[in-house]
């Protein structure tokens, strides 16, 4: 059974899902170079600056817990400490993500979170609206959640120059590394 979990590193609070449909998964690597044009040379001098990894995850939940959605949304905010009557950021809103064998406790910056409940034009696919005293309660039949993550590498990734062996961990991603 695949588990999707998200842990808010500053507070230690977590949310997890065991029953969901994976609707999107995209794992993108981008390599950045600095190009400097020079006189007398056709091609610029190209200097490597770094490689970044972005992951997008989409899941669909049936009968979602709205409180759980609110708790996940709060994970995009930092923790603060009080200093001379002004709030200052104590810790950034970093998260650890696990998604089955695709991501294993990856440290990430949560670049965005969206909550899209199913709506419709008929009774079969519309939210359930009921009254509880003077309060209207809207229950969604399903909801799609989307997470955009910037993976933060905790170890050096690359190859040993002499042995040409991979220096990174096996937690990089799915499958074997060379």
**Total number of beta strands:** 11
Mean of residue pLDDT?
A: 83
Query: What distance lies between the first and last C-alpha atoms, to the nearest angstrom?
Result: 28 Å
Rg (C-alpha, Å): 22 Å
- Uncertain segments are 173-178
Which sequence of strands runs across the widest sheet?
2-1-7-8-11-4-3
Helix count equals 1
β-strand percent reads over 45%
Shape: elongated
Instruction: Tell me the structural class.
Output: mainly beta
Instruction: Characterize the largest beta sheet: strand count, sense, and whether it forms a barrel.
Output: 7 strands, antiparallel
H/E topology pattern: EEEEHEEEEEEE
Query: What fraction, in percent, of the residue positions are helical?
Result: under 10%
Notable features of this structure?
1 helix, 178 residues, mainly beta, 5% helix, 11 strands
Quick take:
Helices cover 5% and strands 54% of the residues. With 178 residues, it is mostly beta strands.
Structure characterization notes:
Helix content is 5%, strand content 54%. The chain is mainly β. Strands 2-1-7-8-11-4-3 form a 7-stranded antiparallel sheet, covered by helices on one side. The radius of gyration is 22 Å and the shape is elongated.
């Amino acid at each position: 059974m695949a588990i999707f979990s998200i842990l808010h590193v500053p507070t230690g609070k977590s949310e997890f899902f065991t029953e969901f449909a994976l609707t999107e998964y995209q794992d993108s690597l981008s390599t950045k170079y600095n190009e400097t044009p020079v006189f007398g040379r056709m091609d610029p001098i190209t200097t490597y600056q770094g490689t970044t990894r972005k992951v997008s995850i989409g899941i669909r939940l049936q009968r979602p817990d709205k409180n759980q959605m609110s708790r996940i949304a709060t994970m995009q905010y930092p923790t603060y400490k009080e200093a001379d009557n002004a709030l200052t950021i104590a810790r950034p809103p970093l998260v650890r993500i696990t998604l089955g064998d695709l991501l294993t406790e990856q440290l990430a910056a949560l670049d965005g979170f969206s909550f899209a409940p199913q709506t419709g034009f008929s009774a079969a696919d519309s939210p359930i609206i009921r009254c509880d005293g003077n309060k209207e309660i809207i229950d969604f039949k399903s909801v799609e959640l989307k997470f955009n993550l910037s993976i933060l590498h905790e170890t050096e990734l690359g190859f040993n120059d002499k042995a040409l062996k991979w220096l990174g961990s096996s937690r990089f991603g799915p499958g074997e590394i060379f």
